[in-house]
Design goal:
480 residues; alpha/beta; Aspartate Aminotransferase, domain 2; 14 strands; Aspartate Aminotransferase, domain 1; five-stranded mixed sheet
Length: 480
């Protein structure tokens, strides 16, 4: 990785790419932003993209493709079965992870469905460093229970600890010694819901030792592996002198199964499962035609498959995998300097605002992270994602579990935003923090029983949104 210093003394991330295709954006007046978010039920997932200026909802399926990826899409072998495109993708996955067997799926949650349908049984438990929303939903739907074993420091909002995503292996050993069946142990490389915090190679190795001791499968969710590889390279001494490809193999050699969303890892739309053991491959294989499509496309477009094969290869390029974390670190550091409470150290996927501290006057039952997401859209046309209590789901008795953290995630899709746009987002969030006393809570007016954060609708608990829009107009005048 090359270090580029500015003569001015500024510390800025430098894009190691140039933009060759552009998409026009629209920034609505604040009054129209207010109407848009209210029409969307204060759920940023339900906003029309045409009404969004900076789409920081997610990095899933919205990363910029390279010229090599777009060129590869023209070579696709469009066949239902026996496609040469599948062979190219499968060979790329085998070369990357060192596992002989590969099953394609249309995205990461489809891989979670196949694993859960095949392995999870009623009464079983699945230990993991931390859950992801769809992962937990698939496991509980099949009668299992998720047990989170994140290290104690992982839930500290402000920290200098380099690997807050590590699993507590002592707790894992105690759990494994119990009498409840464990279909597999799951590690998420880049814990999504607690700030994109990475996992260390040393911790993966320690988890592997416990799995070997008790005869357990180790499954890696590699959807956010690219960011995690960057952090391994720059934060873990063992990895400092290794190539990115060597780091991948150090991690993958410790795992039995690796699944991923290529909407994140690979910067195209699809996913898959890499498997070390043939018997397990054969067990999982029967569900691919049932849920996904034939074994050589798995619900994906062959054009996307060609792009994924190239995208996985580009994951080994340090310039590529460093761009997201460096932009995220810039945004976190700039907001922290302005007093905005952020999750630190900066992780992967996006900049994470600590909504519980930002809106310390809004109780968790009023969904402060969801309210902050609506407020940031009003303030700047910026679409972020709630990652807190709203992203949980009620227990069977109707009670509401409160999330460990209330976060507003401002995702940083790879190679999408310019630095001036990131600076704009910093400015609007900083303004909102100065006016945080105006922001109130939300309440559900339409609450789906499962994955409610995707399409539930909420209303403001007061007229705080109108007051916030009026303050914006008073402060910014005719400016958008």
């Amino acid at each position: 990785m090359t270090s580029v210093k500015f003569h001015s003394g500024e510390d800025l991330p430098l894009e190691m790419h140039k933009v060759r295709i552009v998409q026009k954006l629209t920034l609505l007046p604040v009054e129209d932003r207010l109407k848009a978010v209210q029409a969307a039920g204060n759920n940023t997932f339900l906003l029309r993209n045409a009404d969004v200026f900076m789409d920081m909802l997610t990095d899933s399926g919205v990363n910029a493709m390279s010229d090599r990826q777009q060129a590869a899409m023209l070579t696709a072998d469009d066949a239902y079965a026996g496609s040469a495109t599948y062979e190219r993708l499968a060979e790329r996955v085998r070369g990357l992870f060192g596992m002989d067997y590969f099953l394609p799926t249309h995205q990461g949650r489809a891989a979670e469905n196949i694993l859960s349908e095949s392995l999870v049984t009623p009464g079983s438990i699945v230990p993991m460093n931390y859950h992801f929303t769809t992962t937990k939903a698939h496991i509980t739907r099949n009668g299992g229970e998720v047990v989170e074993l994140i290290r104690e420091e992982g839930l500290e909002t402000t920290s200098a600890l380099p690997f807050k995503g590590d699993m507590d292996t002592d707790a894992l050993r105690s759990l494994a010694a119990g009498d409840r069946p464990i279909p597999f142990v799951r590690i998420e490389a880049g814990t999504n819901l607690i700030g994109g915090q990475p996992v260390s190679l040393a911790n993966v190795r320690a988890v592997r030792e416990v799995c070997d001791e008790f005869g357990l499968l180790l499954v890696l969710d590699a959807s956010l592996l690219a960011d995690n590889l960057y952090f391994l390279k720059v934060r873990e001494d063992e990895c400092a002198d290794l190539s990115v490809g060597e780091i991948v193999r150090r991690v993958s050699d410790l795992c039995d199964v690796i699944y991923f969303s290529a909407r994140k890892l690979g910067c195209a739309r699809g996913g898959g499962i890499a498997i070390r053991d043939q018997a397990l491959h054969d067990r999982l294989r029967s569900l691919v035609p049932l849920f996904e499509g034939f074994l050589t496309y798995g619900g994906m477009s062959v054009r996307e498959m060609e792009a994924i094969a190239v995208g996985l290869d580009e994951t080994l390029d340090m310039d590529m995998i460093s761009q997201g974390p460096q932009f995220i670190a810039f945004m976190v550091n700039e907001l922290t300097a302005r007093g905005v409470p952020m999750i630190t150290p900066p992780g992967g996927l996006g900049a994470h605002v600590n909504a519980m501290e930002f809106l310390d006057h809004v109780p968790q039952q009023a969904y402060p992270a969801g309210a902050l997401a609506a407020a940031v859209y009003i303030a700047g046309g910026i679409r972020g994602m709630e990652r807190g209590t709203m992203s949980e789901q009620r227990k069977p008795d109707g009670t509401e579990p409160l999330s460990d953290m209330e976060l507003l995630r401002l995702a940083m899709p790879r190679r999408v935003f310019t630095l001036s746009q990131v600076k704009y987002a910093v400015d609007r969030v900083a303004w909102l923090y100065e006016n945080r006393h105006l922001v109130g809570g939300l309440e559900f007016i339409e609450e789906p029983p499962v994955l409610r954060f995707f399409y539930g609708r909420l209303g403001a608990t007061s007229d705080w949104q109108e007051k916030l829009a009026a303050k914006f107009r008073a402060d910014f005048g005719d400016s958008l």
